[in-house]
Design goal:
The structure is a homodimer of 449-residue chains. Chain A is of the alpha/beta class. Chain A is 40% helix and 14% strand. The first copy, chain A, folds into three domains: 91 residues; 213 residues, Rossmann fold, CATH 3.40.50; 72 residues, Rossmann fold (3-Layer(aba) Sandwich). At the A-B interface, strand 4, helix 7, strand 7, helix 8 and strand 8 of A face strand 4, helix 7, strand 7, helix 8 and strand 8 of B.
Chain lengths: 449, 449
């Protein structure tokens, strides 16, 4: 099979020691020299020069704006992913050398960025200029689709036959849907007896092989690692750096929404850390290609799973943070998708928060649930992880980190429709029982409760 | 309060006797003379003339195309609904006289129209050119948002204080979300003991008053009718013709997707009939303003609830159909949202199917469930009602109604995430139990099952 791109065009590079590896053939996803995490790098000059020639404006960033603005809204069933996907609109920035024929897209990424409603503005503090990017309005209902489309396109370009993950949540849904679109096998490994069919509806409907093992989650992870290392099975989990390339688009979409002026803050929930890593990488990339960037990242964790927030201190260096960091035993939380005591990408989170002069916040369980309820009152049904980020913003306003009139965009990572169990438990007490079927009785309940 | 528009600009008109009523003050939603259904009419000449002057092209339809194409993809948090909503992009066609300040939008309507995947094409018959408009990628997860944004905007313009419905499904979710955005009270009336909190998560999270009555569904409907007739409570159910105006956008989005060439067929599931009514009205409107329209409507019902398909015969006149029509006692089906034995809008369905030279089809329970599963294999998780329309298309190909190379667009009414119970029951048998944690055993299950 002809290589989709060369190792000099797009490659993997260890974030710690600089070791380079081949994105299309590497399978272990940890640096063999020092066990560091990989970043993806591109030789951006040729694609950006080509792009700059489109309009031949004086400053290249003006051309980028015009090209990306032109592409938005041009999508049809026929027009190809660069026009129809909100992720591939930014192809030159995320995967410039990948031939378009390899792209696996479900028309993801055209998501709304809405101003916070009345109730949320009151709850957070009305002095700031608050927005939410609703990434849950995606093919599989979560932000993972942004990364999924890039990951599965690379898998296709690399000739992968099967992808694999060990997840009951958004990752398995995303992996299964994009694998279906790519006509690649997908396997989801899970401990037997620990999961319900309801948790697995999405991977099953998308035709993934959902396989239960006679063991625990660690056994599933161990088997998956063997499959990845020895049998060319592609991992769909957070270690896979292709996903990060797609998630950077969160930053580009936000910039485009505000006529290419970046906000003061982007607030994200931190579970395994891929959101935070990619927002930071996207901000650095925008700065590198000529945009003015002053955005700080607010990383937010729940009280039940806050190893990064616990070890963070203002003005800490990456090295000091790494020294202070300890993984923790997680507690109970409704924000199950971010219930992680030792995030895979924790070093990348430390790098991006520090480089952006950002901050970390911890959200209490009460606050994160309240945030979801308050958002609902404004007409938006978001997931509990979004609640973490919203509560984090509230705390950051209280603590004076976010200041008056600053513009803040919160990343809403999934639709609330994927987390109805926790919501329905909190809400059933709200159902009103009418004592009779008299119209006046019901009218009174409508107008005066 | 100043009127938002006059009775000569936008009005209600009985589809049977032509009686006119005031959209902003009418509450009963049945013609007082003959109990007929209302249509909404507009004096379209002034707004369309104004629009035609934008580019001053020879043919006005060329200008409409250019204006609507310009607006697509221009949306930001600030730009207002005409640029940011896929529904209000077509404001001149759906509610031309409504001042923009009354519009209540959640940035709905920017939904993908995708070509059917490999498995679905095989299942339906690969000789046709098949697409799906995924209307479930909407704020509340169903097509109802298209109508909801228009209905709630009219409610706001009319000074309504509370809306009401008796529904456990997509209608209550839509009504509650848009009422929240409009800061209007919303009540959902339901029989006590017949519904679970899980069914009500969306109305509850959006802050609706969910009120259970000591009675059955008929009591809820009776109380609602009293509230509507005597206390200026606004009905959010299918009778409300404002919803139809928004649903017409399905046709305009499809036209725009295919560079303003309408497909041969649009296939819709028929429950209460609002989808079918609005697609027909939208097609007639496009023809009226100068587009070439030859699209036929394929109305599809499940075997469990097919009063319209049962009474329909090819080349039947509206009058003959009405004479043959009988309401039926519904059976069991997974497509619960279309389980209706006497559709509210049945006369409108008859009108639109007949005027478009369309057809009716009945989908078997086996076929509609199979269609959902097949769609999943291509990476799309759709609701059982979408399954009805897909199975209807399959039957229409088999019966020679849809012919070789014809272009067909299926309306997918909601995301499968709203109907996981039926899906998970069908799917749990698909879970594979590995006999051991050996890597080779698992690999074998991945690659050879």
């Amino acid at each position: 099979m002809k290589r989709a791109f060369t190792k000099d065009q797009t490659w993997l590079q260890c974030m710690d020691c600089g070791y380079r590896a081949d994105l299309l053939n590497e399978r272990f996803f940890r640096c063999p020299k020092c066990q560091g995490l990989y970043d993806i790098h591109h030789d951006l000059n040729p694609p950006l020069k080509a792009l700059a020639r489109v309009y031949e404006l004086e400053r290249p960033d003006l051309t980028y704006k015009r090209v990306f603005d032109f592409r938005a809204g041009k999508g049809t069933s026929w027009s190809g992913p660069v026009l129809s996907s909100g992720v591939w609109r930014f192809k030159e920035l995320i995967m410039p050398y990948l031939p378009e024929k390899h792209i696996i897209s479900l028309q993801e990424g055209n998501v709304p960025i809405v101003r916070a409603g009345k109730y949320l503005r009151q709850w957070v503090g009305d002095s700031i200029d608050l927005y939410i990017i609703l990434e849950g309005q995606s093919p599989t209902g979560s932000f993972k689709d942004f990364g999924g489309t890039v990951m599965m396109s690379i898998a296709k370009a690399a000739g992968i036959e099967a992808v694999c993950c060990a997840s009951t949540g958004d990752t398995s849904a995303m992996a299964a849907a994009y694998a279906a679109a790519a006509n690649i096998r997908c396997a989801v490994l899970l401990p037997k007896g620990k999961v319900t069919p309801a948790q697995l509806v999405q991977p099953l409907i998308y035709g993934a092989r959902v396989i239960t093992l006679p063991g625990d989650f660690d056994d599933c992870m161990r088997v998956m690692q063997h499959l990845v290392t020895n049998y060319r099975i592609y991992p769909a989990n957070s270690l896979n750096p292709s996903r990060i390339e797609g998630h950077q688009v969160t930053v580009f979409l936000i910039a485009q929404n505000f006529e290419w002026e970046l906000p003061d803050w982007i607030a994200v929930p931190v579970g395994n850390g891929s959101n935070c890593s990619s927002v930071g990488k996207g901000l650095r990339l925008m700065s590198q290609v000529g945009f003015k960037v002053k955005t700080k990242i607010l990383g937010c964790q729940s009280q039940a799973a806050n190893p990064l927030a616990l070890s963070w201190k203002n003005a800490i260096s990456i090295q000091e943070w790494q020294n202070a960091y300890k993984s923790i035993k997680v507690g109970e939380t409704t924000a199950t998708a971010a219930r992680i005591g030792n995030p895979v990408s924790c070093k990348k989170v430390m790098r991006e928060i520090t480089l952006s002069n950002g901050e970390m916040q911890t959200a209490s369980e009460k606050d994160l649930n309240e945030a979801v309820a308050i958002c609902g009152r404004d007409g938006y049904f978001v997931c509990p992880q979004t609640g973490i980020a919203l509560a984090g913003v509230k705390n950051a306003v209280r603590d004076g980190q976010i200041q008056k009139n600053e513009r803040v965009v919160v990343v809403s990572t999934a639709t609330g429709l994927k987390f109805t169990d926790s919501a329905s438990n909190n809400l059933k007490k709200e159902i009103i029982s009418a004592p009779s079927c008299k119209t006046e009785t019901v009218l009174n309940l409508i107008m005066h409760t």
